[in-house]
Amino acid sequence: MGMVLPTAGSQAAAITLCRTQTLVAAGGSYTVQNNELGSGAPECITTGGNGAFTVASSATHNVTSGAPGGYRSVYKGCHWGACTVGSGFPVRVARLRPGAVKTSWSTSQPGGGGAYDVAYDIWFNRSAATNVRPNEAELMIWLNHHGSVQPFGSEVARGVSIGGRWYNVWFGRQGWNTISYPMTSPATSVSNLDIGPLASDAVRRGHIRPSWYLVDVEAGFELWHGGAGLATNSFWVRVARSSSSPGPCPTAGRSSSSGRPGTATCSVTYSLVNTWPGGFQGQAVITNTGRAAVNGWALAWTFPGDQKITQLWNGSVTQPGKGQGDERVLRRLDPAGRRPHGRLHRDRHKQQHRAAGLHAERQGLQLSGGCRGHSRSREASPGPRR
After folding, report:
1. 8-243, superfamily in CATH?
2. pLDDT for 9
C-alpha cells in the first residue's frame, strides 16, 4: 500500500524535532526522525506531520573522512525496532521480484558550503523479526552528495546499469554489510524506483542472501556539516501485497483462553485527538491480528519530555517512571477485534519549553501492543543508525 506525502510547502503548522526526536506521520504509515548521532552540535528539522520535512538549522561539523553527524530522514517499516503501521514489511529477499517494493522521493538541495549526501537507507535482517536492530545488511542509494564525502568502504565497481539507471558500487563491513549505490548522474528526485533489482545485484555480489528479509526503507540526508535548507518534499513506499512475509509478534504467550502456549499477534495505532497549552489528548487502538481470542492483553509506551497521564477511559493505567506508561486491560479480544484504549490526557511539567518543541514532544509517543496475558511488552526506542 502506498501513500503520497504532501509537499513541504503544503505543511500545516511546523513541528520542530531536535536531537533524536521522532514524529509519527501520515496516520502512522511513516515516521519522521531527526536521528542525531556522532555529533552533539545543535541541529533541528521541521515537519508538518505529514512526512515531508526540512533541515531548519544545522551546526553539525564532523570531519568528512569520518562518520556523519546524523541521518535526518523519513521511513516506512521497522527502524531499529520502531515500526510504522501496516508497512507490508518484512519482505523476504527471495520474493523481491520486479515491482515488489517501489518508491518515489522528491527533494530540495540548496548546495552551499555544506557536506552531506542525499540517500536511501534500506535495512535487511537475518530473520523476519522486526523488534530487533538490523543485523545483516544496509543498502544505500545515493541520489547526490555535496562536499568531499563518499560512501562507507571502498569502490568495487563503476558504471553498472541496474533497472535503467547507472551506478557505481561501494562495499564495506561495520558489524553488518554496507552496500552503497551512488548514481553516476546526480538527481534531486526518483520516481517508481524498484528496490528489487538493486537487492538482486547485491545478492549476486555475495553481500545479501536470498534468505534474509527487507525490513525498512528510509530516505534522508546524512550531514557532515551544514545542510540547512535540505528538504524532503514528498516520499512514498509501496509494497505489493503478494510480497509481504509474515513476521512474528514481538511478544509470545497465550494465544487462546485454553492457556496453551502460542504466538499472539497484535498491532497498535495511535492518533492525536486534540491539543491545548500544556497538554493534549490522544487515542490508541489495539487490534488482534491473530486467529484466536486473547483474554489478557496490555499496552506499554514511552514518550519524550517530562509528561504525566492525568486521565484515561476504557482501561486502567500506571506510570512506573518518568516517560513511561502501562495500561493493563484483562478482557477478551476476539480475532480481528479492535479495542480503543479510550483517550489519554497528558500534561507536561516543564512549561518553559517553546510551543514548537512541546508539540513535537507531544506527538513523539512510541507505542507497542502486547498480546501476552497478564504481562506487558515494550517497544524498543529508535537507536543510533550506526
Report:
1. Glycoside hydrolase family 11/12, catalytic domain (2.60.120.180)
2. 43
Architecture of domain 253-370: Sandwich (2.60)
Strands of the sheet containing 266-276, edge to edge, are 266-276, 279-288, 338-348, 307-312
Which tens digits make up the pLDDT trace of 342-367? 434 443 332 222 222 222 233 334 34
Q: How many other C-beta atoms can be found within 10 angstroms of the C-beta atom of residue 287?
A: 17
Phi, psi torsion values for 307, nearest 5 degrees:
-115, 160
Q: Which residues of the chain have pLDDT under 50?
A: 1-11, 247-262, 322-332, 338-386
Our answer to whether residue 218 is catalytic in this structure is: no
Residue 386 CB: number of other CB atoms within 10 A?
A: 17
Q: In whole angstroms, what is the distance from residue 268 CA to residue 28 CA?
A: 10
CB 100 within 8 A of CB 349: no
Residue 81 has what DSSP assignment? T
Q: Taking the model in full, what pTM does it have?
A: 0.66
The answer to whether residue 222 is catalytic is yes
Other CB atoms within a 10 A radius of the CB of residue 66 amount to 10
- The single residue of 138, 218, 361, 379 carrying the catalytic annotation is 138
Say which of 36, 43, 136, 222 is annotated catalytic: 222
d(CA 378, CA 381): 9
Q: Which three cell numbers stand for residue 63?
A: 570531519
Alpha-carbon gap, residue 91 to 101, rounded angstroms: 9
